Amino acid sequence: MALLRVLGLKKSYGGAEILRGIDLAVERGEVLGLIGPTGSGKTTLLRLINLLEDPSCGSIEFEGRTVSGRPEGEKLAARRRMAMVFQKPVMFRASVEDNVSYGLRMRGSWQAPGQGKADGSKEEFKELVRGLLEAVGLCGYEKRDANTLSGGEMQRIALARALILQPDLLLLDEPTANLDPKSADSIDRLLERVAGSELLPGDGKERTASRPAVILATHNMRQCRRLTGRVAVMQAGRLEAVDYTEEIFKGRDGFIFHDFL
Amino acid sequence: MEEIWNGLVRAVELIVTLNPEVMSITARSLLISFVSVLLAASISIPLGGLIEFRNFRGKGAVVNLIQTLYGLPTVTVGLFVFLLLSRSGPLGSLQLLYTPTGMVIGQMILISPILMGLTISALKGVSPSIRDTAVSLGAGEWQVLLTVIKEARHAVIAAVLIAFGRAISEVGVAMMIGGNIRGYTRVLTTAIALQTSMGNLEMSMALGILLICISMLLNLVLGRFQGR
Hints:
heterodimer; A: four-stranded antiparallel beta sheet; 23% strand; globular; B: globular
């Protein structure tokens, strides 16, 4: 059973139809690239999958259960199995540590899910935050005001904030857009490790078992080619093609994405 | 002019020597207004947040009504609460008329629209991305509300201080609901009105100076929160 199924998804704002019927399935542990020109509906699709908005038509299934358009409690339970990193991450007016731990605190837990520790202490939890900060190259930043960081640093904090939740589905919305080449490169290397599950908390065995599915919306073809197993090509609110990355990049059938390669 | 000058000197003396009557009236004023603001804020701030975050029919009209009530005449609130609490009123059996509790209720009604309205404005100023981020990271509805209020904390604290300023300086509710009973419901504003009408200028000036000092202090604190 696919982890995520998107069925006939449509979304309109006012009279403008942004998504015009999307069908898509994402398997556990796979990394799916989402490419398409600006305005093709990538961000809207990710927002709908993250249940931040309800679709105008169609549905979203998570582990075989319809989660879109359901009462807030059901949506919250499904949303807590996902994490999203936005194109322009915003930081809460708080320390880096508080930002990274936000999702865990909202779950009323000082321990990371799946750690196998019934009574994780605050110290263990802090250690977890420290470990993730180290992994994203921001060791020692715990007490810094998150809003004083650079764009690249904020993006890495946003990644750590999502990864600490050990999501089953990780949604990345153009995580290297708006960054200078050096910052983009460091995020790129991080994503490579995310795709290989190296950055998840826990030991190797746990990491492999809990490897998240990732949907990566990007304009960066090099990044897409290197990180993803399959690619979905979006154009004007529709999916033009979904195929293995190698096939898509062979450019067979003259896919539209050649226009922005 | 000399009478005013002498009154002023005497008023300062009353303050400097910590005159028990002046101090007790000031302490009562501060306490009643503090309790009013505390209770009104704990209801109005979350309510303002819910109004801002929920979409419902007539939301615009509700917000307009709240903003209209900012300038609610204190005597009108006084009359309304008087009718509620008077012996023949619906809450007459509680016997709250001419009590500090009655004054707290009146002041709460007076300042709640300000607290609600300014909270709504404060939350509007927070980037929608903050809310999206909180929701996306798994915050429930109340957790999102608290997160956004925390983000707008400077503006919300400013709203609380403005409400406190309105509560401590109002006279209509204090007079009509409190009844200006010495040692029980007499507060700065009602005492000033009484002492002036009795020709006891030094006393009313001393209380007036203290009221202005409290307002200035509030303004200073407010300025800090607004980065002035």
